[in-house]
Amino acid sequence: MSKQTMTAPARWVCVYCGSRDGQNPIYREAATALGTALGQAGYGLVYGGARVGLMGAVADAALASGAPVHGIIPRGLSERELAHDGLTRLDVVETMHQRKLGMIEAADGFIALPGGFGTLEELFEVLTWHQIGWHDKPVGLCDVDGFYGPLVRCMHHMRDQGFVSAANIARIGVAHEPQALVARLFEPMAASTDMS
């Protein structure tokens, strides 16, 4: 359902993140900063459609900065995750697979903020799809306060053990500040990564 006519932004950025705030207030601050940065860059936000946790924070900030926001949420989660009723567009779908596919198809690039199992599942799905040649969209990790440091080390280990190519690792953009990640998201990722 649409709340208003959706204007076409320069790009649509899909943000994966938690439906909780996490223990450190800096995570919510980063989500707010990311939503603001997307709006300031003229980008639209695609995300999981909830109004709680980091998901709600990034959506509210994007809306406040003038960005169109497209949420996609499964019907079974619309009550548990408290679907956001103030979005530019909210699609209620039947399955998680439909949610994830809709987000991937709508986006020109992807950013992962801190989150849990669902965030990692979504992140690794888009990384896997790139690896097998199903898309060539940029992917970035917003490494807030070192949150993704252990994951980055794990991916380096997978590369060193021969399970992931160096090229696929190198294309993942990593930045500690949301504004920096947004500013370079659509630059060549291999040239703009901290993941050496």
Automatic annotation (TrEMBL):
It comes from the Bacteria. Its EC number is 3.2.2.n1. It is an enzyme of class 3 (hydrolase). GO terms for biological process: cytokinin biosynthetic process. Pfam families: Lysine_decarbox. It catalyses: AMP + H2O = D-ribose 5-phosphate + adenine. GO terms for cellular component: cytosol. GO terms for molecular function: AMP nucleosidase activity. Keywords: Cytokinin biosynthesis, Hydrolase. InterPro entries: LOG, LOG_fam. Belongs to the LOG family. PANTHER family: LOG FAMILY PROTEIN YJL055W. This is Cytokinin riboside 5'-monophosphate phosphoribohydrolase. It comes from Salinisphaera japonica YTM-1.
